[in-house]
Amino acid sequence: MNGINQTALLKALGNLFDTKVQSADYTVEELQGGTLGDVVKLSGEAQTATGTKPFTIVLKSQKKWERAGDPGSWRREYDLYQSNFGNIFTDTLRRPQCYLAEMNGDKIELWMEYVDGKSGDKLDLKALEFAAAEWGRFQGRLYNQSEKLTGIRCMSEPDWLRKNFEQWHKRTYSYEFLISEKCRLPGFLKQLLKDRKIRLYDGKSFEYGCLRSEACDIPAHLKRMLMELDEHKDAVFKRIKELPVVLCHRDFWTENIFVSNGKIRLIDWDCAGWGFLGEDIASLVYDEIETENLYDYFQTLVPAYVHAVSEYINIPQNINRYITDLILIVFSYRAVQEYMFTQDPEVKKEQIKRLQAVYELRELDENY
Q1: Which of 181, 223, 234, 272 sits between 20 and 30 A of 153, alpha carbons compared?
Q2: One digit per residue, pLDDT tens: the chain, 368 residues?
Q3: Residue 103 forms beta bridges with which residues?
Q4: Which residues, in sequence order, are bridge partners of residue 265?
Q5: Using CA atoms, how far apart are residues 109 and 76, in angstroms rounded to an integer?
């Protein structure tokens, strides 16, 4: 990150302490760094008219970029902090407070509360069950209090889910580009293309062709599960549209959930918007969860979520099947990509195990 804007820092600290801050001494710790965004923690002491005050504050900087199907996502958190979005939360479940939000051209800076607590792989199943239930209860309660969201216009739309899935059917590259030096495709895949062992399909992604190629040795029953989703996607999305439309976080996984003292704090709201009931719990069950835990997590987190939502919303029958559909919509082609883009047998084996776990969860629902 290129320096710290001292004027903005003092203004943010002034809002934090509700008093003018004259100066601040601090150290900087990188929490997350990338090409388009940085998150750092500043810890130190602020000098005010009444004395020195210790502080810890987070600065999130984000450059403009476009997420496929959701071009406004790069600035969504800024827009949300400018709205009345914060009014929908409770003390038990909320986002970090923002002390200053600024936009300079194609860059946003958010000065926010530092959120502490258990997160990521430090969250055990009990903590995640608590998070699943509280999020379900939050979505259900808000579903019946939609007036609280009046005036918030920057949300992603329910069709984001389909647009995201359709990328695999529309994101195309020519054969000439894929085998060229400009393309970062692994060399062994370029050779498979040259040997015609991977076929390209008009209007479809490279991964779509991989799944249907002789070079892809994913077990036949798993390939069939994924290809049937493609073949029947219109019917699948028609069925999903029967689900209630709720406020979704859309990046609801362990690294964005912090649990401390019976309270939940959710970070990273740049994907947030209107979506279908179950999208977030599908993400929590599958995204970055150890493969050997998938069955237990599904059997624990989904009922906790459904039970909590049911306090406010009528839940369709066969909800488990909806949720496995949602898992496949979001993660199936990512699994194909992980499988095909490596020559590491352990990585390949892991993706097969993950797909097999979803397959078995679907098989459990005999009434579908």
Answers
A1: 234
A2: 458 999 999 999 999 999 999 999 999 999 976 556 799 999 999 999 999 999 999 999 999 988 877 888 899 999 999 998 998 999 999 999 999 999 999 999 999 999 999 999 999 999 999 999 999 999 999 998 878 887 788 888 899 999 999 989 887 889 999 999 999 999 999 999 999 999 999 989 999 999 999 999 999 999 999 999 999 999 999 999 999 999 999 999 999 999 999 999 999 999 999 999 999 999 999 999 999 999 999 999 999 999 999 999 999 989 999 999 999 999 999 999 999 999 999 999 999 999 999 999 998 875 44
A3: 108
A4: 94, 258
A5: 12
Do the Cβ atoms of 42 and 113 come closer than 8 Å?
Answer: no
Structure tokens at 183: 């393309």
Nearest to 207, CA basis, from 172, 161, 175 = 172
**CA 25 – CA 215 distance, rounded (Å):** 58
Q: Which two tokens stand for residue 342?
A: 């490596």
What letter represents residue 151's amino acid? G
Task: Determine contact, residues 295/360, Cβ cutoff 8 Å.
Answer: yes
CA distances from 261 to 41, 92, 208, 226 (A): 22, 9, 46, 41
CB count within 10 Å of CB 331 equals: 18
- What domains sit in the chain, N to C, each tagged with a CATH number? 1-114 (3.30.200.20), 162-238+330-364 (no CATH)
Using CA atoms, how far apart are residues 225 and 203, in angstroms rounded to an integer? 21
> Is residue 71 classed as helix, strand or coil in its secondary structure?
helix
Q: Cα torsion for 81, 253, 132, 302, to the nearest 10°?
A: 140
Assigned token pair, 359: 């397959």
Single out the residue of 282, 275, 276 nearest to residue 321, CA to CA: 282
Q: Which two tokens stand for residue 368?
A: 């579908």
